[in-house]
Amino acid sequence: MDFSEKAGIRIAHWIEHNASHIQEYENFARELDTAGKSACARHIRAMAALTAQSNECLRSALATLD
Fold first, then answer.
1. What's the chain's Rg over C-alpha atoms?
2. Which residues contact residue 28 at a Cβ distance below 8 angstroms, ignoring those fewer than 6 apart?
3. Which pTM value belongs to this model?
4. 18-58 tens-digit pLDDT
5. Which of 8, 28, 33, 38 is the most exposed place for a label (fewest CB within 10 A)?
6. pLDDT tops 90 at residue 66
7. Is 5 helix (H, G, I), strand (E, B) or coil?
8. What is the extent of the structural domain holding 7?
9. Number of domains present in the structure of the chain
10. Is residue 4 within 8 Å of 66, Cβ to Cβ?
11. CA atoms within 13 A on the CB side of 48
12. What mean pLDDT is predicted for residues 6-27?
């Protein structure tokens, strides 16, 4: 396996890993809202959005790896 193949596997793993975190953040933000902690929930949602943005960067990196 060459370097590009290994790099692609690593980047793909990070994308999947981040996606699972995004889901966890969204779930937790809902719990915070339910607990009356809406301000905190907004920050967690902002973090989820930033993580989604980072995944877009990773997808672009993966697309240019060829």
1. 15
2. 44
3. 0.89
4. 999 999 999 999 999 999 999 999 999 999 999 999 999 99
5. 38
6. no
7. helix
8. 3-63
9. 1
10. yes
11. 18
12. 98
